[in-house]
Specification:
Layout: E1 8-11, E2 18-19, H1 21-34, H2 42-45, H3 52-61, H4 70-82, E3 90-91, H5 95-104, E4 109-112, H6 117-126, E5 135-137, H7 150-159, E6 166-170, H8 173-182, E7 185-189, E8 207-209
Parallel strand pairs: 1-4, 1-6, 4-5, 6-7, 7-8
Antiparallel strand pairs: 2-3
Length: about 220
């Protein structure tokens, strides 16, 4: 895989391109306070961030999507998050330099996330990236989100490159599964959230990076 010509780079959003955990965790803690519960430490919520509302509500309330309480909790959580989605969120250290270098090399880049577009697009604008990204594919841009490969294939077509010529960088096992299914070269962002399941060394990625700038060595 390392001998592939890389003509496009795609990123997961939460925990890969940007550190969104402070604002997602903040929304969860505001929801807990509304229910008369104490706030949880940010560090304890961080690993659950890539799983979005499902992961954070599970961590904060012990409630799964099959629970009758889940829909209302999720609706309120998302409303709280939407009202303050880019207060403390920022690009991971070095990621800005990576994007600039990709642009200098005329390598188009984009974002493929399971986050709904009502959050993705405003967040990308707040980060100053909306006009720079060649592709922004959200969870509701396709019928099935990751690990289904449809969103990655759509993004590759928007970049104007073959899937086999793309790197996909993500911090969750479903990112690696989706990249593999799409025919892309999967890269683990080990600086991200990494979830709470299997160790990332067992995900079967082609590469692992521990800092965003390491991505440049794969081009």
């Amino acid at each position: 895989m390392s001998e592939r010509l890389i003509r496009g780079v795609l990123f997961d959003l939460d925990g890969t391109l940007a550190d969104t955990a402070p604002d997602l965790g903040g929304a969860l803690n505001r929801l807990r306070v509304e229910h008369g519960l104490a706030e949880l430490p940010a560090a304890s919520l961080r690993p659950h961030t890539s799983a979005g509302a499902r992961g954070l509500i599970g961590a904060g309330f012990g409630v799964t999507p099959g629970d009758e309480r889940y829909p209302l909790l999720a609706e309120r959580f998302l409303a709280l998050y939407e009202s303050a989605l880019c207060v403390e969120t920022q690009l991971f250290e070095g990621m800005g330099e990576v994007l600039t270098r990709l642009e200098q090399l005329a390598i188009p880049w984009g974002v493929v996330t399971n986050k709904a577009s009502r959050f993705t697009l405003p967040l990308m604008r707040e980060l100053g990236l909306h006009e720079r990204a060649t592709s922004i594919v959200s969870g509701d841009s396709v019928p099935a989100p990751k690990p289904d490969p449809a969103s990655l294939k759509l993004a590759a077509s928007q970049l104007g490159v073959e899937a086999a010529e793309c790197l996909y960088v993500g911090d969750d096992e479903r990112d690696i599964e989706a990249a593999r299914a799409a025919g892309m070269s999967p890269v683990v962002a080990a600086f991200g959230y990494l979830g709470c399941a299997r160790p990332h060394a067992e995900w079967g990625a082609d590469h692992t990076i521990h800092h965003p700038l390491e991505l440049l060595t794969l081009l």
